[in-house]
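Input record (one chain):
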Amino acid sequence: DPGKRRGHVEVWGALGSRSAAVFDLDRDGDLDIVTNEFNAGPMVLVSDLSTRNKKLHFVEIELIGTVSNRSGLGATVMVGAVGAYNKVYDGQSGYLSQSVYPLYFGLGEAAVIDRIEVGWPSGIKQVLDGPLVSNRTIQIREP
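The corresponding structure, as predicted from the sequence alone:
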């Protein structure tokens, strides 16, 4: 039956997290988690998704503000690759932690990026037209 699960599935859950940071710790293209439970040491959860599925693609966007603030906090980023993915870089991700800088976009099976649009806090709109290659970090400097 194709709908039934096969094999071992291991699920981890937080007991009383005080902080969690989500980022690509091992630089393999998928996101990992470092969490700190109440009265315990940190726990590192490393994803192996990228090794199990070679068709998955991603892009990381590193913003460099020149007119706006140096990190581009407050910018809106849209990545177009088969679909459109939007994020606001607001510098907030959780209690006592900060996640994902540069901004991470999972692209599914889309290997090519058609377009990246950045709305900077200064009001400047910036467009990078594709095709752009995925599975890398793209630095975007505010004009």
